[in-house]
Amino acid sequence: MSKPTTLFEKIWNAHVVANEPGAPTVLYIDLQLVHEVTSPQAFTGLREKGLKVRRPDRTFATMDHSIPTVDIAKAGSISLDMIDDMARKQLNQLVINCNEFGVKVYDTTTTERGIVHVLGPDLGLTQPGTTIVCGDSHTSTHGAFGALAFGIGTSEIEMVMATQTLLQYKPKTFKVDYVGALKEGVTAKDMILKLIAVNGFQGGTGHVFEYMGEAVRSLGMEGRMTMCNMSIEGGARAGMIAPDEKTFAYVKGREYAPKGAAWDEAVAYWRTLKTDEGAQFDKEITIDVNALEPMITYGTNPGMGIHITEAVPDPSVIRNVNERSSLEKALNYMDIEPGKPLIGKAVDVVFVGSCTNSRITDLREAAAMIDGRKVADNVRMMVVPGSEDVRKQAESEGLDAIFQSAGAEWRSAGCSMCIAMNGDQLSPGQYAVSTSNRNFEGRQGKGGRTFLASPLTAVASAVNGVVTDPRTMIN
Length: 475
Ligand code: SF4
What we know:
alpha/beta; Aconitase, Domain 2; 15 helices; binds iron/sulfur cluster
């Protein structure tokens, strides 16, 4: 009988092209996703070396980071007039590069364009058992489908473009077992923020997380993507969830999904993609979901998170000098008092969007909570769908009208305030509750302060004008 193996090992082993002792593995890559910010040097490198993109049929590009999300009422007629020169140049260059190298680009003339980690699943490009790379760290999102997906650097983008392979040292495995069942008002975002708070924002370094347990299986695909998206915030190379019937149902019928007999064959293979009973992981952790509350971050890395009812930690009781000084620095930047919960803290901006929480179920949950309520006068609320497909779906369900009548801004697809582009940013000193994935100093605008949380917590805080436990607003 063969040795029990993990999901990660099955996919890794199936993609090894060459494996010499002491050298990195040559790994076959099934899909490369590209966006405007990290790809220009890679295309230039190919051009200078006289190389081609080896598999243009397995390389897809989109515009997300630099694209404006205002005044673009309908995809296909996006005006680029209002963005800055650098952003305009990047977007134009992406089209030039993709046309020259025969790569399909979802640009402003297409109706599907979106954040790269929303677009791939939307189109059915993201499939179980595949290896997926992109010059963006949140490529881990695609692991929700049982894919091995991770971010790569510029020279690696060029290597994959030229060879469809990548040099990689094999990461270790890390089982994250979520036991128990989610309570109302507690979401996938809270599950992943809890892991990062408990295990540390670098606790997964050198490993690939596999999320397991009933609470994970109970999540829809969007929730699973939220979890895998933030694997990188927990330090891991990637995050994965074994595919199941929900995965197959999500992929089926999408543009690039296998069709007919190829579909049946694919699903038969995908059903084998799970960790065997008795397989060994290099590390393991268990999270009790029964005790989980909505999470919120208080500091300047995603590991600085607490249950929303808990008090912000007090540096004076921390013995480790480095930890104490890092917490002091974070609280100083955030201008937050330790020893008290964040509930009741006034907020200026609420952002619902990003590749973490901008999919249709995120928007449905947010709309259901804000329906019939108003955004507080002191708050600016922005809702930015992750892709034009998501935007169209949301509009067909009337979600845009719900957000707008509550006083929120309804935008077109893009990264927007996740990365402070095109004027979508905090002013110095402002506080935001954000559904994005990073709360680093200045991430959402110079001097801006970010509390990461779920869409439910974001909406509850927008309505009350202060950080609010969403459970108090659920009947
Ligand atoms: S939404 Fe934010 S984290 Fe996601 S790809 Fe865009 S900038 Fe990166």
